């Protein structure tokens, strides 16, 4: 177990280092670390614009990618635990689409960016409530109904988003909304990091504080009730934390899917069943996944940046099909 955690930590450090070093201009790790240690100093033999590129472009982008990866992965972990199925994911259950519709409407009506995470939270919460209502069954949540309701709700949200796109006041606003929906963190700045990071941090702390309740819920609602847990209260609190983190991620990165599907599955296979360890390792796997995908998005394209959401869908789609092929029955 120790070696696996050490390997994950090395992967995380490697992804962070590569994200800071690679780009249109290559910097050595020594130059990056020297600039981070002395942000206002003029380093000898430093390339032109080193400090500005690192501090104003690459570092905020790295931190935003970390927030997105952490928020989506832990959100997916909570949803999988609540539904007791590894197919649950913010993107597949309609939470991301609900948050995306709220963001699209907020952008259409010209809301301030600081209000975006709140709008995404309300949209995601409404979507999750609708899906949970549709997926209810006498023994708990039906996974089949959960996924089907999520797909149906996502289609409805996509239709409304298309109406917003086609009726945008200007071509520039429509193009901006389109590229945001494709998913990506290019051009994000420090000012956009603060609100999303705050909302994601609140959800993450709630998930950690309720790790014991998560463990009980993973055994089933009847077992959790028998052990004295207020199941309804715990479910809605954890669901709100998941939606809050998902909304924070969507507000800053657009519709980025499958991180919340892949990261919890990988973490669960490699790092046991301790809930707190699972949450930290799931977050780390999600951060590595988004950092590597974002690095590929901005380095593989010839003269242009590829959509982050598209790359992750190319990775997550086959992974989802693989999970479906190995899924037996419908567990509550």
Describe this structure in words.
With about 325 residues, the chain is an all-alpha fold. Helix content is about 75%, strand content about 0%. The chain has 14 helices and two strands; from the N terminus they run αααααββααααααααα. It has a two-stranded antiparallel sheet with strand order 1-2. The longest helix is centred in the N-terminal third of the chain and has 34 residues. The radius of gyration is 20 Å and the shape is globular. It starts with a helix and ends in a 7-residue tail after the last helix. The model has no long low-confidence stretch (mean pLDDT about 85).
Q: Topology, pairings included?
A:
Blueprint: H1 2-21, H2 29-37, H3 50-83, H4 95-108, H5 116-134, E1 136-137, E2 140-141, H6 143-166, H7 171-182, H8 190-209, H9 211-217, H10 221-226, H11 231-253, H12 259-270, H13 275-299, H14 308-325
SSE pattern, N- to C-terminal: HHHHHEEHHHHHHHHH
Give a count of the beta strands, DSSP E runs of length 2 or more. Answer: 2
Approximate strand percentage? under 5%
Shape: globular
Strand order of the largest sheet: 1-2
Radius of gyration: 20 Å
**What would you call the structural class?**
mainly alpha
Biggest beta-sheet profile: 2 strands, antiparallel
Summed up, the helix count is 14
Task: Average the pLDDT over all residues and give the rounded result.
Answer: 85
- Rounded to the nearest angstrom, the distance between the terminal CA atoms is 30 Å
**Which stretches of 5+ consecutive residues score pLDDT under 50?**
none
Which range best describes the helical content: under 10%, 10-25%, 25-40%, 40-55%, 55-70% or over 70%?
A: over 70%
């Amino acid at each position: 177990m120790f070696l696996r955690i050490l390997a994950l930590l090395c992967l995380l450090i490697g992804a962070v280092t590569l994200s800071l070093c690679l780009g249109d201009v290559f910097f050595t790790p020594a130059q990056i670390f020297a600039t981070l240690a002395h942000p206002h100093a003029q380093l000898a033999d430093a390339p032109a614009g080193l400090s500005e590129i690192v501090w104003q472009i690459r570092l905020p982008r790295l931190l935003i990618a970390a927030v997105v990866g952490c928020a989506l992965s832990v959100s997916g972990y909570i949803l999988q635990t609540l539904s007791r199925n590894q197919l649950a994911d913010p993107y597949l259950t309609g939470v991301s689409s609900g948050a995306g519709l709220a963001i699209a409407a907020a952008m259409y009506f010209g809301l301030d960016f600081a209000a975006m995470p709140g709008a995404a939270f309300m949209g995601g919460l409404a979507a999750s409530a609708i899906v949970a209502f549709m997926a209810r069954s006498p023994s708990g949540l039906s996974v089949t109904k959960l996924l089907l309701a999520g797909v149906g709700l996502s289609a409805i949200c996509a239709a409304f988003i298309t109406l917003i796109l086609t009726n945008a006041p200007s071509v520039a606003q429509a193009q901006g909304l389109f590229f945001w929906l494709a998913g990506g963190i290019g051009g994000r700045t420090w000012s956009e990091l603060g609100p999303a990071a705050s909302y994601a941090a609140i959800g993450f702390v709630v998930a950690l504080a309720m790790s014991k309740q998560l463990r009980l819920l993973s055994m089933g609602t009847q077992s959790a009730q028998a052990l004295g847990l207020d199941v309804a209260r715990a479910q809605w609190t954890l669901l709100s934390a998941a939606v809050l983190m998902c909304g924070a991620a969507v507000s800053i990165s657009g519709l980025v899917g499958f991180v919340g599907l892949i990261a919890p599955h990988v973490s669960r296979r490699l790092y046991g069943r301790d809930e707190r360890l699972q949450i930290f390792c799931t977050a780390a796997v999600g951060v590595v996944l988004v950092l590597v995908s974002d690095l590929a998005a901005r380095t593989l394209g010839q003269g242009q940046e590829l959509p982050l959401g598209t790359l992750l869908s190319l990775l997550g789609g086959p992974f989802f099909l693989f999970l479906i092929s190995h899924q037996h029955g419908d567990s509550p």
